[in-house]
């Protein structure tokens, strides 16, 4: 998506450890009309898939998921990160290693908010190693819901998550795919 690639080129900041910062328009200050356009593009790609819920993970996925859900007219459910092991029978949980923080946490969704009749679209800001997406997939499947696919704003396709999850049969639509990244430059995959 050219609009997004241009914005990443202009305002994205490369940090050590293969981290791209998009704090100026997505992850800290949110450019609402811009992110809403990303949501419209996700809608265009998944509008015929009967999506009934959008699932994301706190914190940075929430804004993107909400501005996407407006186009679909469906609710957003976000997985909460819990540092303590939550063994309650009222929740679905999955263990996720954090790419940016180097920590592990359990992510938790109340059983009340996902059910077998749901058709779930997962939305997240980044795809790197695939851990976050894997955890959200696990929770969706545990609920008996149908996983329609995942919409990712920025996939770093030089990292293995996308390939791994597509090989597992997940449909992943990424709005920008970064093919390579060095300390001072990045290149996008051709559409
Ligand atoms: P994964 O679980 O696929 O390794 O990483 C995805 C999660 O880590 C995303 O939810 C995102 O919050 C974070 N993440 C991964 N790579 C980056 C990055 O380059 N920049 C930022 N800002 N977050 C990232």
Q: Can you tell me about this structure?
A:
The protein has a single domain (2-178), classed as Rossmann fold, CATH 3.40.50.2020. The model has no long low-confidence stretch (mean pLDDT 95). Helix 3 packs across helix 4 (60-72). It has 191 residues and is of the alpha/beta class. The chain is 33% helix and 34% strand. The chain has 6 helices and 10 strands. Strands 5-6-4-3-7-8-9-10 form an 8-stranded mixed sheet, sandwiched between helices. Strands 1-2 form a two-stranded antiparallel ribbon. It has helices at 2-11, 23-27, 32-46, 60-72, 131-143, 161-167, and strands at 13-15, 19-21, 53-57, 76-82, 91-97, 104-110, 119-127, 146-156, 172-181, 186-188. Guanosine-5'-monophosphate is lined by residues 19-21, 27, 57, 60, 99-100, 124-133, 161.
Give the averaged pLDDT, no decimals.
Answer: 95
Report how far the terminal alpha carbons are from each other: 8 Å
Total count of domains: 1
Q: State the CATH architecture.
A: 3-Layer(aba) Sandwich
Binned strand content: 25-35%
Q: Which of globular, elongated, flat, extended, rod-shaped describes the shape?
A: globular
Small molecules (ligands, ions, cofactors) in the structure: guanosine-5'-monophosphate
Q: Number of DSSP helices?
A: 6
Helix percent reads: 25-40%
Strand order of the largest sheet: 5-6-4-3-7-8-9-10
Q: Which structural class fits the helix and strand makeup?
A: alpha/beta
What pattern of helices and strands is seen along the backbone?
A: HEEHHEHEEEEHEHEE
């Amino acid at each position: 998506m050219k609009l997004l690639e241009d914005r990443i080129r202009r305002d994205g900041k490369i940090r050590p450890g293969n981290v791209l910062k998009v704090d100026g328009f997505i992850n800290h200050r949110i450019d609402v009309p811009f992110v809403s356009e990303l949501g419209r593009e996700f809608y265009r790609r998944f509008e015929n898939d009967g999506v009934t819920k959008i699932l994301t993970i706190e914190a940075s996925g929430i804004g993107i998921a909400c501005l996407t859900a407006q186009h679909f007219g469906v609710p957003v459910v976000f997985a909460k990160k819990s540092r303590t092991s939550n063994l309650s029978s009222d929740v679905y949980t999955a263990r996720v290693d954090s790419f940016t923080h180097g920590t592990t946490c359990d992510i938790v969704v109340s059983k009340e908010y996902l059910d077998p009749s749901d058709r779930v679209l997962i939305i997240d800001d980044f795809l790197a190693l695939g851990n976050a997406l894997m955890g959200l997939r696990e929770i969706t499947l545990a609920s008996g819901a149908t996983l329609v696919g995942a919409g990712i704003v920025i996939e770093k396709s030089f990292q293995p998550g996308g390939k791994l999850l597509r090989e597992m049969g997940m449909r992943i639509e990424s709005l920008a795919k970064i093919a390579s990244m060095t300390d001072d430059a990045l290149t996008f995959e051709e559409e």
